[in-house]
Specification:
The complex is a heterodimer of chains A (361) and B (663).
Chain A: H1 4-20, H2 25-32, H3 37-44, H4 50-54, H5 63-84, H6 87-114, H7 124-129, H8 143-149, H9 152-157, H10 165-178, H11 182-202, H12 205-233, H13 238-243, H14 254-261, H15 266-273, H16 280-285, H17 287-308, H18 318-342, H19 347-350
Helix pairs in contact in A: 1-18, 3-18, 5-6, 5-18, 6-8, 6-11, 10-11, 11-12, 12-17, 12-18, 17-18
Chain B: E1 7-15, H1 19-29, E2 33-35, H2 49-71, H3 88-126, H4 136-141, E3 145-153, H5 156-163, E4 169-176, E5 180-188, H6 192-201, E6 205-206, H7 217-271, E7 274-275, E8 279-287, H8 291-301, E9 306-311, E10 322-323, H9 332-341, H10 352-366, H11 370-384, H12 396-413, E11 415-416, E12 419-420, H13 422-428, H14 443-471, H15 475-480, H16 485-502, H17 510-516, H18 522-534, H19 536-544, H20 554-578, H21 580-600, H22 606-643, E13 649-650
Parallel strand pairs in B: 10-13
Antiparallel strand pairs in B: 1-8, 1-9, 2-8, 3-5, 3-6, 4-5, 7-8, 11-12
Helix pairs in contact in B: 1-7, 1-8, 2-3, 2-7, 3-7, 9-10, 10-12, 10-21, 10-22, 11-12, 14-20, 14-21, 14-22, 16-17, 16-18, 16-20, 18-20, 21-22
The chains are: A mainly alpha (361), B alpha+beta (663).
Chain lengths: 361, 663
């Protein structure tokens, strides 16, 4: 097994080069000053996203298609990093990439549940395919066949032989009883993060240390947001919150999640685990707007954690992981910009949700 | 032969009245690669009715496929002349009727299969507690204890999480396999809400026994087994019923499917036509050779059709031109090898013919054995004919070619089924001398020869690269690319250095020695062309007019340029020496055979011949596979990488059935 300098010489050089091509906070700030959607896209054509946007003809240029093209770049980055990374780390990268397949799976299931409310002139698959992440040949789910199956149980039947079969088989009993996608989505989320954490823990030495730090940062953000959302927004019971969250992470400990589930002071727990995040109580007063803001602050913590991975010894899996996560978060910023510009939103309405521009402060 | 088929860009203006007849011609001939021209249509005309038709045909086709699937019938495609667009309403009543007959039985079967699955799951849950002597129904009736018996995911962390709830409880894990765990959660009736919530959120699926299943677990298990047997019997009866229905409706369903299928395909094609007020615009590509016949057929279909055909030159860049490769059945496996690496772009040299020569030759050189080569040929032939090893049928011909050259090299090396030299006389009782050289007795010579062969192949690959770049008029890369003129001259200089290092050793390549004797000042040319390789990106930027000439600062540029030179030298060395493996495997082949002779002993007993038989099977299977991988590696890394870029768009003509071969 190649590891250390021999295993990472090529990939760390390539990832560093790709990292230097990521947009800077100044770039994002400049893009956010674009007067409208077409100008934003023509500015983006001068960045590394140019080749992906160039294939779109002007008459095809819709916000949704533009977002799809940007995501193609992320898919290519994953594919390229997965191919170059040492063998023992590939399953971790692939599992990280599955996050987008998980999103596709949820989108497919949601589309099946809501299809009756759609315009019948457009075939369901045509509607759904536009919002799916371009997962390409990595995908293990038969998305089109699932959409065309027409109902959730039939669609889930098609997941036989995929990594989701076992999880879905347990969760489907609850779906049948409740006719609600919530248990399916929770089960899929928990299974995804458990597998990701297990992959990170399988590594050894510096790989394991850096992977648990970076994957852990992502996991902390999700776990904390789940616990808070389940309590504040969904008003779930203590035992449900415990079962719907994860007992591991990098900074967020099991005791923290349990304390939130048991009705502990959320603000104190968040401030203790992330000292730079203050005033959580104010955010929780109006959960509808406060929780997304808290999530943005936690994502900024992830960006810092990922940026720190590029300091010091570069010969470990932390660099590729950090680069992929930063690429994803960058695209999240661009999605915000595209949606804001195409709906003529004012700068002050969306500036606060941009992740990268906060690094300018 | 050496390039993808020449293509013609076609634009058709079709009067609305001839739309269907022209579409039939375009779809039926399998030579027209359609380009979506729907955007050329007038928006004011509103949505096309063909979109609705295509959606309706698609829905109907899926319904028919679903019926056929239920009846276990395969879809049978007909000839490309028997088709027409059928009216939906002429097909739908028949589909409704057959569906009505089949659906009920099919649904009953589905329900019964689900019931069987559920009963088997219940049995699986009950077996761990089959020995307990209590009333199953008493679990439901207990006044103080709240009990949940069920199955959850066999994940220790999930189970631990459930066990960590704060309300007093006991959790027993009764049974676990790789997927499921049967657990029993017990607590006070007062905490039943908390226990239920905890179980539900941990995805613990309670055991749900039908009301009629009362008694002890052992009794319930017996009842469940009986119900399973009954369910299986019912499934058998329903399947027989479906079998009969399949026999009755087979012909009708296949006709309905074919009519709907071709109608759907043609409607899909029409949706992508540009619709004007009274005409349709169709854009696409046709192989130039097929154009005259297609034109004739189109004119027969529509007297007023306008056809504009623009032949496309091969030189220059043509990213949007679809690529139709040679359709030669003898070269099909080689073409698959090439397209696995990349599909040639239009105008680029198709390396299939070259690979058809080099692949079997290099394979044969590594696996040279007269007897084993003949066996390989036979296996390849039988597999190609789908008589033996049907799974390898697509590679059958490749095995025949490789086996043929393995046979020739076997004669050149003097090897038959691993017998060489005196062993042939001793055990096979005839005299057989190598026609050329015995690898085992001339190890260094064969290794040196392999390097020489590699140098010739590499130089040829470099020249092909120059040829491709000249055709594409990519002059910057022609001169300063990684396989451009400067790089090739530097490779010559590199070979003289290699010759100097290896001197008169037997492994020293003769070609490098010959190049060194040329009356050229290599000691001056070497540093000059090294600088050329080092700064080739700068020269390319100058040639192409790219600015800035240098990116990322002068110091960083020099570091990068030096690394470029270093990388070039390393890759030239590794590419050249990579071909040593050809000689090394020829030697290893003899060595492996000798190993089996050592195991077999000296006396020609039955054991001796059985050992040699096993050895030969092992060598053909195992070494044959390794040599195949090595040959592929040499082609993908050392040969194709030099001149072949790929990235061509696949030629996907409109066609009605998958048996129509790709042009």
């Amino acid at each position: 097994m190649a590891s250390g300098v021999t295993g990472y010489a090529a990939i760390s050089t390539k990832v560093r080069a790709m990292y230097s091509n990521l947009l800077t906070p100044q770039d994002i700030s400049r893009l956010s000053d674009s007067p409208d959607f077409p100008t934003l896209i023509s500015s983006l054509k001068n960045t590394q996203y140019g080749p992906y946007l160039a294939s779109l003809k002007d008459n095809e240029l819709t916000p949704r298609r533009a977002i799809q093209q940007l995501r193609r770049r992320l898919a290519d980055s994953y594919s390229s990093v997965a191919q170059m990374s040492p063998e023992q780390t590939r399953s971790l990268i692939k599992q990280l990439f599955r996050y987008f397949e998980l999103g596709n799976l949820k989108a497919v299931l949601r589309s099946i549940q809501t299809v009756s409310a759609w315009n019948p002139d457009v075939a369901p698959w045509d509607r759904v395919s536009e919002v799916l992440f371009p997962f390409g040949s990595f995908s293990s789910i038969p998305a089109q066949a699932m959409v065309e199956a027409g109902n959730v149980p039939a669609a889930v039947e098609l997941l036989k032989g995929t990594p989701y079969e076992s999880t879905m088989s347990f969760a489907m009993k609850r779906f049948s009883a409740e006719q609600n996608l919530f248990p399916l989505e929770v089960a899929l989320d928990l299974d995804y993060w458990r597998r990701l954490w297990a992959e990170a823990k399988k590594l050894s030495g510096q790989d394991r240390e850096s992977a648990t730090k970076i994957v852990g940062a992502l996991l902390d953000m999700n776990n904390l947001m789940w616990a808070i959302r389940y309590r504040v927004y969904h008003k779930l019971s203590e035992e449900e919150i415990i079962n719907y969250t994860l007992p591991f992470g990098f900074r967020v400990r099991d005791e923290d999640v349990r304390a939130i589930a048991a009705g502990g002071d959320i603000s104190a727990i968040v401030s203790r685990t992330f000292p730079s995040i203050t005033d959580v109580n104010a955010l929780l007063e109006r959960p509808e707007t406060g929780l997304p803001k808290l999530e943005v602050q936690l994502k900024r913590q992830v960006i810092r954690q990922c940026t720190n991975a590029f300091i010091g010894n570069p010969f470990h899996i932390g660099l590729p992981l950090a680069f992929l996560i930063l690429s994803d978060l960058e695209i999240q910023d661009l999605v915000v910009l595209i949606e804001a510009k195409s709906s003529d939103a004012l700068l002050e309405d969306f500036r606060s949700v941009l992740l990268k521009t906060s690094l300018l402060n | 032969m050496f390039f993808p088929r020449e293509m013609t860009e076609v634009e058709l203006i079709i009067p609305s009245k001839d739309l269907v007849t022209v579409t039939k011609v375009l779809s039926g001939r399998g030579v027209f690669h359609q380009v979506d021209s729907a955007y050329l249509g007038l928006e004011s005309l509103g949505p096309s009715t063909w979109q609705d038709k295509a959606a309706n045909y698609s829905t109907l086709e899926r319904r028919i496929q679903s019926i056929m699937q239920t009846l276990g019938l395969a879809e049978e495609q007909k000839g490309s002349t028997e088709f027409d667009i059928v009216e939906i309403e002429s097909v739908r009543p028949a589909v409704d009727r057959v569906e009505g007959e089949v659906k009920g039985v099919g649904e009953q079967l589905g329900v019964e299969k689900k019931r069987l699955e559920s009963l088997e799951a219940q049995l699986k849950q009950l077996e761990p507690i089959a020995h307990l002597n209590f009333e199953v129904g008493s679990l439901r009736k207990s006044g103080h204890v709240h009990s949940i018996l069920g199955v959850m995911k066999a994940d220790t962390k999930v189970i631990e999480r459930l066990d960590s709830i704060r309300v007093p409880h006991v959790l027993f894990e009764l049974k676990r396999d790789a997927k499921d765990a049967v657990v029993w959660l017990l607590g006070s009736k007062n905490n039943s809400d908390e226990l239920e919530r905890a179980a539900k959120s941990a995805f613990l699926n309670p055991l749900t026994l039908p009301e009629e299943f009362s008694g002890t677990p052992q009794q319930v298990v017996e009842k469940t087994r009986k119900a399973i047997d009954e369910s299986k019997q019912k499934i058998f009866e329903l399947e027989s019923q479906l079998g009969k229905l399949g026999g009755v409706h087979k012909v009708e369903l296949q006709k309905l499917w074919w009519d709907t299928h071709v109608s759907r395909l043609m409607a899909d094609a029409i949706v992508r036509f540009g619709q004007l007020r009274h005409t349709y615009v169709v854009v696409g590509w046709v192989p130039a050779a097929d154009m005259p016949l297609l034109t004739e057929k189109l004119k027969q279909a529509s007297k007023e059709i306008l056809i504009e055909a623009v032949p496309t030159e091969r030189s220059g860049h043509h990213d949007n031109v679809p690529v139709a490769l040679l359709n030669n059945k003898w070269l099909k496996p080689i073409q698959e090898l090439v397209t696995t690496y990349g599909r040639p772009s239009y105008g680029e040299l198709d390396p299939t013919i070259l690979v058809a020569l080099t692949f079997p030759i290099l394979y044969g050189a590594m696996f040279g054995d007269l007897g084993q080569g003949l066996i390989l040929m036979l296996v390849g032939y039988l597999s190609h004919k789908k008589i033996f090893m049907k799974g390898l049928s697509s590679l059958g011909l490749l095995l025949v070619y490789c086996g043929f050259f393995a046979t020739i090299f076997g004669a050149l090396y003097g090897s038959i089924f691993g017998f060489e030299g005196h062993l042939i006389e001793e055990y096979l009782h005839f005299h057989f001398e190598p026609l050329w050289i015995s690898p085992l007795e001339n190890i260094l010579t064969i290794l040196g020869f392999a390097i020489d062969a590699g140098i010739i192949i590499l130089l040829f690959s470099y020249l092909l690269s120059l040829f491709n770049m000249a055709r594409a008029r990519d002059w910057a890369h022609f001169w300063f690319g990684h396989t451009g003129v400067v790089a090739i001259v530097f490779y010559f200089c590199f070979l003289t250095i290699l010759n100097g290092l290896l001197g008169t050793t037997p492994i020293a390549p003769k070609i490098a020695a010959a190049i060194s004797t040329l009356p050229l000042p290599f000691n001056i040319l070497t540093p000059i062309f090294a600088v050329g390789v080092m700064f080739n990106s700068l020269f390319r930027n100058i040639a192409e007019g790219h600015r800035p000439l240098i990116e990322g600062g002068i110091v960083m540029y020099f570091v990068t340029a030096f690394m470029d030179l270093f990388e070039s030298v390393i890759s030239m060395l590794s590419n050249t020496l990579s071909f040593v493996r050809v000689g090394a495997f020829a030697v290893a082949h003899g060595g492996l055979s000798l190993a089996f002779f050592s195991l077999a002993g000296e006396e020609p007993t039955i054991g001796f011949w059985i050992t040699l038989l096993i050895g030969n099977i092992f060598i053909i299977g195992f070494e044959g596979l390794i040599v195949y991988i090595q040959t592929m590696r040499l082609h993908y890394y050392e040969i194709l990488g030099k001149f072949f870029h790929g990235g061509g768009m696949r030629f996907e003509p409109l066609r009605l059935n998958s048996s129509q071969e790709e042009a």
